Amino acid sequence: MDITKTAKISEIKRDWVVLDAKDKTFGRLITEVATILRGKHKPCYTPNVDCGDFVIIINATEVKFSGMKLEDKEYFTHSGYFGSTKSKTLKEMLDKSPEKLYHLAVRGMLPKTKLGRAMIKKLKVYKGSEHPHTAQTTKSK
Q: What is the pLDDT of residues 81-108, one digit of tens each?
């Protein structure tokens, strides 16, 4: 009788994956990132263990969007005080803080627990093609 193996934290080997966002569709890129962060691409995937890899996204501002999303899609923030709702369009978010945009999108696809918060910390987003993680041995996708 075969027994299903569950991954232990001490047995997990984490890799560094570099994804180039240039001319890729935003949503498809984000689903790929969420899958890698979660560890679902590995044969040792266990739902209650963080067995995902580190992800570095370069050229974050050069991603593609379909339709009129750049002008029409809005992101809202609220401080908790009356009348403090503020909104930014997708284009403003992409120009000003693409890191925040990517984190918001990926966070929605991860578990809403301590495990999900640990996974999102392994995401690194950079506007240009340079990143400071050259010391780590990375895989390009």
A: 999 999 999 999 999 999 999 999 999 9
